[in-house]
Fold this protein.
Amino acid sequence: GAVVSQHPSWVICKSGTSVKIECRSLDFQATTMFWYRQFPKQSLMLMATSNEGSKATYEQGVEKDKFLINHASLTLSTLTVTSAHPEDSSFYICSATQGAGAASGNTIYFGEGSWLTVV
Amino acid sequence: EDKVVQSPLSLVVHEGDTVTLNCSYEVTNFRSLLWYKQEKKAPTFLFMLTSSGIEKKSGRLSSILDKKELFSILNITATQTGDSAVYLCAVEAGAQKLVFGQGTRLTINP
C-alpha cells in the first residue's frame, strides 16, 4: 500500500479561489517533503522543499505567496494554491523519504498526485 | 543550474524490439541517478545508480551509469505493450532533491 498519501486526487475549483492539497507520510516521519508540478506531457518540476517546523525553500520562479507550503508536523505537508487561475491547472505531486536520500539507501516515495483544474 | 536531459523525447517501436533510453546530466552535487516509469499517476521506481559501470538489472530492464561522461542508459529488451509509459530520469542533487529530465514517451505497438 501507499506510504505517502496525497489528497485530494482530483479537484476542480473556480478561478480566484484557493485550494489545499495534503501530503502525508503514513508509516514514517519525514522532516523534509518535496512538491512538484507536472504539466501535461512534461516532466516533474520541483517547486519547493518543505521543511518541518520552518519555512519552505522555493525554487527559482515559483511564487511563494501563491503556493503556500506548511509542514506542521513530521507526517504532514500542505500545499495551498491561492487565488487559483486556469494556468495553475496541473498535476501536483509530493515526495518524502525517511532519511538522507536515495544515495544513502532510503527510498524516495511519491504521493499519488493531485490533478487540479481551475475553471 | 542543475540540468538533466533525456533522449529521445518520444519513441515508437514494435513489440519484441529492444530500446535504449538516454539520460545525460550536469549537476553540482551528484548523489545518485534514478529511473522511474510513469503511466498515469505517480512515478514508480525502477533503478537507483550511484557507481559507474555497475549494471543494475530487473527482468527485461537494465541500467548503467557513467559518472565520467555524465550519462546513464536504460535498456528494455523484448518490449511488451505494457512497457508503454513515460520513462523519467532524475538526479539526486543534494539530499533527497530530485532534478528530473523531460522524460521519454515510449510507445510499444503490438
